[in-house]
Amino acid sequence: MGTSYLETHPDEKGYFGRFGGSFIPPQLEGPFAEITQAYNELKHSPAFIEELKHVRKHYQGRPTPVSFAKNLTEQCGGAKIYLKREDLNHTGAHKLNHCMAEVILAKHLGKKKVIAETGAGQHGVALATAAAYFGLECEIHMGEVDIAKEHPNVVRMKILGARVVPATHGLKTLKEAVDSAFEAYLEDPINAIYCIGSVVGPHPFPMMVRDFQSVIGFEAKEQFAEHEGRLPDHVVACVGGGSNAMGIFSGFIDDAGVALHGVEPTGRGEKLGDHAATLTYGEEGVMHGFNSIMLKDANGEPAPVYSIGSGIDYPSVGPEHAYLKEIGRTKVGLCSDEEAVDAFYKLSQLEGIIPALESAHAVAYAMKLAKTLDKEQTILVNLSGRGDKDIDFVVEHHPIPHARF
């Protein structure tokens, strides 16, 4: 890896190796070219950079801290576990990092409305928050299954002034929410902008969302050095589309001595439809306007997927994740529903931190990894969100353990 990976990837057409690109209808080519040009101009604008810095410091509450999980470390034995606390970012997850920036971009382009999909509801809440802050109309598309499962976030979006549109076709989860949002955007790409919620979609969104999320990694790199005086040995993050993972990986991607682990959900098992482990079981294919690795059914169409974490049950993955796995820069870890719930309760009862179910996948994998390493090794986990949204669902289906671990 060179010292300027983020500057050289993707290429001008949005490709990370053979993954990425832009596969969109002709009527969207103009709007997407406009977005690309605007981003390339804004990212070098001192005024834009200053506005974003001000918002992050005085509104979002950045930087978020890095915390040593002492009790969890002792419980696991082995390596020391640290947490990058994106659960303390305003709205409770990492999503606001790119939503505030995307809405600034929308205003720069003269847009009146922002449209997005959401799975767990964290991106929807973040975009509704950014739209309220900057005075834009907001429309969030969400699968009916996730609307029922993530009810607290649905209420939050509506309180913030967003219109929540149910996706009622197919499995009624994240993929269908993306379908629905794209259709709404196609109706009026002049006055609206589709604010994609992860490092997926047509160019420039995988690059743009990664760049906005890279604040996580660069903060964490400096903060971790304050704790240990060196870089972490391992960095761990959950991967659905992969925005939180690319955010923290960005800070360490040029440091060959730091192992990067993206954790996928194995859900209920290896059978197609029981998991969303795209990088593990998928193959190359185009979906939602980009070429990456995807899970396919017998007809070559996007396969049904499942995870207890609504934000990571997606049948594809960000093209940069596909590329980084292919070149051997990242490792893919796996976590089942059962392991995620165990980590959810362990982190809650040992550290007083209730994680999002998506983030619990990364915690669970880190717990397993720690046991294989000696006590001088270190693991930095991106705790991408808090679990307020999940507590009713978890308690209903997985009773609270009565004793501390």
Name the features.
alpha/beta; 4-stranded parallel β-sheet; globular; 6-stranded mixed β-sheet; Rossmann fold; 405 residues; 14 strands
What can you see in these coordinates?
The chain has 17 helices and 14 strands. It has 405 residues and is an alpha/beta fold. It folds into two domains: 16-57 and 95-209, 3-Layer(aba) Sandwich (Rossmann fold); 61-92 and 214-397, Rossmann fold (3-Layer(aba) Sandwich). The chain has a six-stranded mixed β-sheet with strand order 3-4-14-9-10-13, with helices on both faces. Helix 6 links the parallel strand 5 and strand 6. Helix 5 packs across helix 10, helix 11 crosses helix 12 and helix 15 crosses helix 16 (357-370). The radius of gyration is 19 Å and the shape is globular. The model has no long low-confidence stretch (mean pLDDT 95).
Gap between N and C termini, in Å? 42 Å
Bin the helical content: 40-55%
- Mean pLDDT, as a whole number? 95
CATH topology annotation of the largest domain = Rossmann fold
Judging by the overall fold, what is the CATH architecture of the largest domain? 3-Layer(aba) Sandwich
Q: Could you tell me the number of beta strands?
A: 14
